[in-house]
Amino acid sequence: MFFLHFTGFPNVLGCIDGTFIKIKAPSENEPEYVNRKGFHSLNVQMICDGNFRITNCVAKWPGSVHDSRIYRESSISHAFENGQYKGILLGDSGYPCKPHLMTPFPTPSTPSELNYNKSHAKTRVIIEQTFGILKKRFSCLHSGLRTTPEKACDITLACATLHNIGIDRSDILDFDDDYVNDYGDVQVNIEDQWDGKNVRNYICRSFF
User: Fold this and answer.
1) pLDDT of residue 190
2) Is residue 208 part of a domain?
3) Which residue among 23, 143, 163, 197 is least crowded, i.e. fewest CB within 10 A of its CB?
4) Average model confidence (pLDDT) for the chain?
């Protein structure tokens, strides 16, 4: 209801994205950790709700791995595919459009499609803000973790847990642009599913 009330987007359970957590060059499988921006990192998937609470965190993948693969192989994806959740996630164009995962129209051509994309962006920005709050609260996630990938994964998960404790206690930091996601250009995904597009078209016609 939060998302519908404030942004007009219906039935949203959360917003999803990946964020790079910088690490030192590992001694094993080093090339796998070089992300598309050229530095060593993890690629960490997170989902947040309307209160900046992290409801899902997958911290185990090297920086070179695409967002869509991380999501496809995650337990939360399988749960949505199996109908365990009634609602949708919002993701950027790095994700495939699925019945439970709405992405923007790649080339909006009607007023409804433009309004859909505008509302989608306005809603999905909360995951960027969540990254900003998290990395401002735990600056090591912003500046980088000089440890092994395995320990960096554990630290990231611990920070996400502590972040949620802060949210539960209404200890919410302001964020600034220095801490907002540094992902850069989105890697466009071309694996959209027709049933996902049909749901997107229905939402567009019905609400925008």
Assistant:
1) 47
2) no
3) 143
4) 88
